[in-house]
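Sample entry was shown:

___
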Amino acid sequence: MAVRPIVHAPDPILNRKTVRVKAIDASLHKLLDDMVETMIAASGVGLAANQIGVPLRVAVIQLPEDEKATVLINPEVVKREGVREVDEGCLSIPGYRGLVRRSVKVHVKALGVDGKPIKIKAENDLLAEALEHETDHLNGVLYVTHLVDKNGLVKVSEEEEAEDGGEAEAPKAS
């Protein structure tokens, strides 16, 4: 396993839709291991492959309470319900956060690390936010697209960003 450099905006790979995985092999498992290690080293909650310069449709998510990361191969959001506003950041746009619109409920289908189909449902929590955030990355969409106020990016200190977990933060009470 290796920690890989994280690609920062405005790198064009972040704005391109990723390519579906056709084969789950040793090289993909190595990539996934590297992604998990990179995400943990960056204090992130999730990481999409294009964030480390690999244009494949894979992402990993590990919430603070999880013992291991969830691997999503070829994920697709199949259902969204409701709208909520959450404070969000991104490892590819370090030092900034912003209030974005996300769904209340999210249903995702994907393949797991073993190649078997998985379905994940999340509602009004960090997992729902991370699922949308990472699938957006794989579709070439950055969170700033969803800003409530287009001028609403806020500069944060490195300490604040490390405390918040980089990718996404738990929703704040309204």
Q: What stands out?
A: The first strand starts at residue 46 and ends at 48. Residues 26-41 form the longest helix (16 residues). Residues 12-164 form a domain with the Peptide Deformylase fold (CATH 3.90.45.10).
